[in-house]
Amino acid sequence: MLTIFHPYHIVSVSPWPLLSALNILLAMLGLIKMFLLAGVDLFYLAMISLLVSVTLWWRDVIRESTFHGEHTLTVMSGLMIGMLLFILSEVFFFLSFFWAFFHSSLSPSLEIGSIWPPTGLIPLDTFQVPLLNTVILLGSGVSVTWAHQSLLNSNNYNIKLSLMLTWLLGAYFLFLQYMEYKMAMFSISDSVFGSVFFVSTGFHGIHVMIGSLFLMVMWLRVFQMHFSSSHHFGFEAAAWYWHFVDVVWLFLFSVVYWWGG
């Protein structure tokens, strides 16, 4: 039998991608059911099932890269390109929100009083919670960079400390955003301002939540000694994603909170 050696990773048959896709479909149907019939059972069930399937899927990927040695330099190069393309798609995702914001704010319609913010709407104070959240995310960007440098220098104590600080700052950001939403004098149904504000900042909050979980998993993997100074793409992907979240927030703070408010 002829044996062919190559640097590529031939993925084994796995049920997790199919199950994850089906769970996402069920989650979307659950959202529709929640909006129309006010029932949340299907959505919660789908989200729990999705969490289980993706956890098992990511467990297999970690096993392939860390213990089986199947993520060669060629494979990691492809993973890097895939992650960069994913972040690029996220850039255009948020670009659509900024487009909607500028379309409505630069030429306000008669329905909202021909002014921006619309008549009777009281925007949030830019230099209170939004400014504090900006400082928090900028600080988390510094701490995740510190973690990366510590990883390159094989300083395990500093990696654990800086990564823990990063995802804790992310969790604190989410808490402050929740309190900010409770204090807001307008809702998502208050004209186009409320819609764009809550959709853009809400989706950013979801990305902060995902990024915090991403970094928390990397933090737990550091305790398991899964990374080395030369083989740590999982951590790099998490750091890239977190820096993207930071940059998006700077645009949200500058445009939606400061200039638009």
Element-level helix/strand string: HHHHHHH
Average pLDDT for all residues? 90
Distance between the termini: 70 Å
Q: At the third CATH level, what is the topology name of the largest domain?
A: Four Helix Bundle (Hemerythrin (Met), subunit A)
Percent range of helical residues:
over 70%
Structural class: mainly alpha
Q: Name the CATH homologous superfamily of the largest domain.
A: Cytochrome c oxidase, subunit III, four-helix bundle
CATH architecture of the largest domain: Up-down Bundle
Q: How would you sum up the major sheet?
A: none
CATH class of the largest domain: Mainly Alpha
Number of domains: 2
If you compute it from the alpha carbons, what radius of gyration comes out, rounded to the nearest whole angstrom? 21 Å
Number of extended strands: 0
User: What fraction of residues sit in β-strands?
Assistant: under 5%
Number of helices: 7
- The global form is globular
Unreliable spans are none
Describe how the helices and strands are arranged.
Elements: H1 16-37, H2 41-66, H3 73-105, H4 129-152, H5 156-183, H6 191-223, H7 233-259
Transmembrane segments: 16-36, 42-58, 79-102, 127-147, 159-179, 191-220, 240-260
GO molecular function: cytochrome-c oxidase activity
Protein name: Cytochrome c oxidase subunit 3
Give a short summary of the structure:
The chain is mainly alpha-helical. It has helices spanning 16-37, 41-66, 73-105, 129-152, 156-183, 191-223, 233-259. The protein contains 7 helices and no strands.
